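Thread: Newbie trying to understand structure tokens

Hi all, I'm a second-year student working on a class project, and my supervisor (Dr. K.) asked me to get a predicted structure for one chain before our next meeting. I've only ever worked with sequences, so writing a 3D structure as a token string is new to me. If someone could post the tokens and maybe explain what I'm looking at, I'd be very grateful. Here's the chain:
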Amino acid sequence: MKMSNKTYDFLKWVAMFFLPALALLVQSIFSIWGIPYGEQIAASIVAVNAFLGACLGISNLNYQKEQNADDES
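---
Reply by user tm_fold:
Sure, no problem. This is what the structure looks like when written as tokens:
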């Protein structure tokens, strides 16, 4: 999967900061106010975040391989 540096940096920020904070916010607010399904929604956000992290990790590995191949040429 190829993506620009700008896209990669944005998605990395989303995965590192936004989604974990959102999951915590949902779980906390839903629990405080007694809104149902807070744990399920927070767990779903965490699952999406784990998938995004895996995709970014694969993208980073592919990028590193390309850079190493270019350096050897």
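A couple of things are worth pointing out once you decode it. The chain has two helices and no strands. The helical segments are 5-33, 38-72. Feel free to ask follow-ups in this thread.
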